[in-house]
Amino acid sequence: MRNDFAVFILSHGRANNLITLKTLDKIGYTGKTYIIIDNEDEQEEEYKKLNVEDVIIFDKNEMIEKTDTADNFKDHRLVVYARNKCHEIAKKLGIKYFLVLDDDYSSFDFRFIKDNKFKAKKIQNADKLFQKTIEFLEKSGALTIAY
Known about the structure:
Helix content: 25-40%
Oligomer: single chain
């Protein structure tokens, strides 16, 4: 996998059940993987035992102050703070392209309709998919792509 690409897995309190990491391995992803957690996560040491490039910790209160969640609730158990931090993290790491995933992806599938039925075909080669996605991103002029 190219050096200017990485997968960021956003997590909190699930170091022992990081489904996405296992799924990426199953679909053949060979590139850089970082786990992004906030400074309120008590499982930092468990995350650091996983097979990833690094565990990156961000200051949640700093991101709460910078993020308008368009509500007036005081419950800050939102992944938006980690998502908003990803661009800054990527820039600091010298990563030009990145994929942001939650920690509970159990499969990556292509979805399509065949014979009037909704079907799925499992991804077999994550590196190829991610490379083709980057090529499309570069050619299209889009700023972001969502699967």
